[in-house]
Amino acid sequence: MLTRTVVLVVYDGFQLLDLAGPLDVLAAANYAVGTPAYRLITVSPGGRSIELPGGASFAVDQALEQLAATTDAIDTLLVVGGMGAFVPKTSSEVARQLPALARRSQRITSVCAGALVLAAAGLLNGYRATTHWGACDHLARAFPLVTVESDRIFVHDRNRWTSAGVSAGIDMALALVEADLGTEIAQFIARQLVIFVRRAGGQEQHSAQLRSQPARTPSIRAVQQWLPEHLAEDLTIAALASRAGMSERTFARTFRAETGATPAQFIETLRVEAARGLLESTDLTVDAIARIVGYKHGKTLHRVIARRLSTTPDRYRQRYTTTAATHPPINLM
């Protein structure tokens, strides 16, 4: 099997989770296939160890400049994120070396704010990209030649892969593994790491709770927080208004004004998210899932999934889950 060299670039102020997520996924792929599918190399400016919050330090394998000066082929170049990406001196120190590495790389990728460093190196000009939701506006303003897609978990545009914040780096890494080694291996790794195989990149970066505005009115905010765990209960306007201690008209008007969505829209989004999770992680029938998330019939859930996700529940499940893998379990201890 081909061994792919993956270069992971860190720098002062990088976020450890942005590195650890993809690193663990790729290492798990090596274990799952029983051979070194990925050769993992960490680099930093000057090859220096990076001081982490709390006093720990992270030692790298090689100096960024040293690797940039070689002619070694690279399969995947990955730049992690962190607050250092917003520091011009730090970002430019890394960005100066990236074009030489990029010319030898089959894929150029980033996690979270690492997209800012790629953009500073000119490597995202003319490409679609994403980053942490809090940095999307900054990326768009600072680098107008980049087409920023702020509502994506990750974006794959030709040989550029960019992901949103922290956990999205895991999603992207799983997608890279799937592209290299197949769906079965990627699904197996996700199960072993106890994460959903989810979010093919066309979904919002946050859950409905995070995307919506928290209501200013305490009683409506309490309803927002109560809803996700009570999707199968009576969620009519009358019932919700009573819970909030308001008239139906006042509740509906205030909910929409303060959250940016009608109660029905908010509830439907919660139900779709809950159904997705159950489709991905259980073998329950569509009818059973429909009842759990608050629909009387599976055909109702079918219509909603088709409208919201442009697919069917069965096709969604086939795309994002797999039967029990035949590989030996990964020892994570």
State the domain count.
2
- Helix content range: 40-55%
User: Biggest β-sheet: count, sense, barrel?
Assistant: 7 strands, mixed
**Distance from first to last alpha carbon:** 26 Å
Low-pLDDT windows of residues: 322-333
Q: Which geometry do the CA atoms define?
A: globular
Radius of gyration equals 22 Å
CATH architecture of the largest domain: 3-Layer(aba) Sandwich
Assembly annotation: single chain
Element-by-element helix/strand order: EHEEEEHEHHEHEHEEEHHHHHHHHHH
Tally of separate helices: 16
Query: For this structure, what is the CATH homologous superfamily of the largest domain?
Result: Class I glutamine amidotransferase (GATase) domain
**Classification by helices and strands:** alpha/beta
Mean pLDDT, as a whole number? 89
How much β-strand is present in the residues?
A: 5-15%
Using the coordinates shown, work out and report the CATH topology of the largest domain.
Answer: Rossmann fold
List keywords for this structure.
globular, 2 domains, Rossmann fold, alpha/beta, 333 residues, Arc Repressor Mutant, subunit A
How is the secondary structure organized here?
Layout: E1 4-9, H1 16-33, E2 38-44, E3 50-51, E4 57-58, E5 62-63, H2 64-68, E6 74-79, H3 88-95, H4 98-102, E7 105-110, H5 114-120, E8 128-129, H6 136-142, E9 147-148, E10 154-157, E11 160-163, H7 168-181, H8 183-192, H9 208-211, H10 218-226, H11 237-244, H12 248-259, H13 263-281, H14 286-293, H15 298-309, H16 313-320
Parallel strand pairs: 1-2, 1-6, 2-5, 6-7, 7-11, 8-9
Antiparallel strand pairs: 3-4, 10-11
